[in-house]
Amino acid sequence: MPVYERHVFVCTRGEWCPSVDGDGLGVHAALKSAVRAADLSGRVRVNHSGCFSQCGNGPMAVVYPDGIWYAALTPADATEIVESHLLGGRPVDRLRYDP
């Protein structure tokens, strides 16, 4: 089993995110698909996460070890995150979470 360069956690559980904030499951699926399409499966892992305790800002994702948090995501954002951040090393500023 590989040691991943980056790990992406997507909030898909809790009471708020799945029912109020949007399509966390869709964001998770789109990120997994975009990672596969970019041939990053052995380098980047995408996982479901429990609640991030940031209700009202989701769907959310966090990329480790970078410590970059993304908020208000849609499945359409997945390709940009993969291409810019995971491949290019440039976080997507317009999607970054700013508490």
Explain what this protein looks like in three dimensions.
The protein is 29% helix and 19% strand. It has 3 helices and 4 strands. The protein has a 4-stranded mixed sheet with strand order 2-1-3-4, with helices on one face. Helix 2 packs across helix 3. The protein is globular and about 30 Å long.
Major β-sheet, in short?
Answer: 4 strands, mixed
Number of strands: 4
The strand order across the widest sheet is 2-1-3-4
Please state the overall shape, judged from the principal axes of the Cα atoms: globular
Beta-strand fraction estimate? 15-25%
Helix/strand order: EHHEEEH
Share of helix, binned = 25-40%
Over all CA atoms, what is the radius of gyration? 12 Å
Low-confidence runs: none
- The number of helices is 3
Gap between N and C termini: 35 Å
- Structure classification: alpha+beta
Mean pLDDT: 91
Please sum up the structure shown.
The protein is an alpha+beta fold and 99 residues long.
Topology readout:
Layout: E1 6-11, H1 17-21, H2 24-37, E2 44-49, E3 61-64, E4 68-70, H3 78-87
Parallel strand pairs: 1-2
Antiparallel strand pairs: 1-3, 3-4
Kindly list the characteristics that best describe this protein.
single chain, 3 helices, 99 residues, alpha+beta, 4-stranded mixed β-sheet
